[in-house]
Structures are given as structure tokens and as C-alpha cells.
Amino acid sequence: MTTLENRPNTALLVVDVQNGAVAGAHERDAVVANIGSLVDKARRERVPVVWVQHNDEELVRDSDDWRIVPELTPGDAEPLVEKNYGDSFEDTTLESVLSGLGIGRLVVVGAQTDACVRSTLHGAFARGYDATLVGDAHTTEDQTAWGAPAPDQVIAHTNLYWNYQTAPGRTAGTVDTKDVEFGGTS
């Protein structure tokens, strides 16, 4: 379905599941467990798992906050893309990694819902990728002190609007962990 030529494969894209990004996140443990089960499923089905790791003044490289949570361990052969902006494609190697793997469809999980996950979904879709959000495998922290809705509402709204995202020649949607079908990997 993707508009990208010769990209029949699917990848699991794990965005910013780092200690500092999920420490105070809504339903952190359940979300990390769901991500872990998807990583295991992808590996069993020989679907590429691509990891994204954010660097900035709050997630300083090599600090404990910067590290991927201890429950998840990137495999030695699994690509890890470092980024400095919300959109995982912006000024990173992600596009070349995905191109090299023939990836045209992304299954997206991670943190934070209203920042890097949202930016990456839109960035992927605008670049021609099919993009599926796993509705119970992304999370965010409480930003109500700054006028945002409660985290569960942010997550629910993101799941709702992404389920109805449309564009010519591309698919989007939201599924639960139990319903993820990687398919499309040759």
C-alpha cells in the first residue's frame, strides 16, 4: 500500500522508550510490557525492530535517563537511530536504515504520545510510509499543569484521530497489541 517503491517490508519502530522519557509516564509498566511482547513477536516473525533514542539537555547521552529501559534490550543486529528532534526522521539516519531494509510500513510504539510519537507518525506518513500506531503501547507523562488534558485523554485522542488518518496510497490506523499483524515482510 505504501507509496514508496520496492518497500514491501514492515518494521516495528520503538520510539524513545528511555528511562527519563517514561519514568513518570501513564501506565508505564503495562506499556513497556506491551512493547516487550511486540519486540518478541517481531523477532519471532523475523520482522526488523528499529530503535530510536532521543538526545537532548534532559536526556543526555550516556546518562541513566538516556538509556533504554532495562526491560527492553535492542539486539546487536537491530538498528538504533539517535535523534535530537521530535520527528525520528528529522536529521537522522532513519530513512536510510528503513530504505536499506525495504521498509514501507511502520508499526509504531513508544513515548511520548503527544511529542515524539505523534511527530514520528506524521513524519512517516508525510514521507510515504504506511503507519500503524499500537494504541496500548505508547504513553506520555502528565502535562495538566501546563494546560494539557490528562494523559489517558491524550492517549485516547491520539488513538482516535490516528485511526481515521488518510492519504492517497497510504494506510494508517490504530490497533491493540493483541491485534498487531506484522505481515508484509518478505
Give an overview in words.
The protein has helices at 19-22, 28-44, 94-100, 113-126, 151-163; strands at residues 9-15, 49-54, 80-83, 103-111, 130-139, 172-175. It is of the alpha/beta class and 186 residues long. A six-stranded parallel β-sheet has the order 3-2-1-4-5-6. It is globular.
Task: Supply database-style keywords.
186 residues, globular, 6-stranded parallel sheet, alpha/beta
Helix percentage range: 25-40%
- Per DSSP, the total helix count is 5
The gross shape turns out to be globular
Strand order in space, largest sheet = 3-2-1-4-5-6
Summarize the structure.
By secondary structure, this protein is α/β, with parallel strands linked by helices. The protein has helices at residues 19-22, 28-44, 94-100, 113-126, 151-163, and strands spanning 9-15, 49-54, 80-83, 103-111, 130-139, 172-175.
Fold topology:
Elements: E1 9-15, H1 19-22, H2 28-44, E2 49-54, E3 80-83, H3 94-100, E4 103-111, H4 113-126, E5 130-139, H5 151-163, E6 172-175
Parallel strand pairs: 1-2, 1-4, 2-3, 4-5, 5-6
